[in-house]
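Something for you to look into today, if you have time. What I am after is a single protein written out in full by you. I want to see for myself how the chain folds. Could you add the entry underneath, on a fresh line?
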Amino acid sequence: QVQLVESGGGLVQPGGSLRVSCAASGFSFSSYYMSWVRQAPGNEREWVAQIIGGESTNYADALRGRCTISRDNAKNTVNLQIDSLKPEDTAVYYCHVVVAENGHYKHYWGQGTQVTVSS
């Protein structure tokens, strides 16, 4: 059974930094792309970043240069570090994976972790 559990959210002042983490289980973690997606109040979910294998990464334009995604395949974790936080980064941050099961691709999301940027 695939499980994704996020942690590390909280209240941060503008200009600060925060690292959120996702612990994954129930699938062959190192074989899959892992992504972070966020959803601000009243908005649709917005893709933030993706890590492919161990090194290749992609970022949304809104966070490029302020954001680093990383993974530890030995611990089945994926992390997202955001620097120079802005109030518009306030959102629930979700870990996401698409897993192949019985010939189909299924989307999995964690429960999310709230990040609030405010003074």
In short: The chain is about 0% helix and 55% strand. The first strand starts at residue 3 and ends at 7.
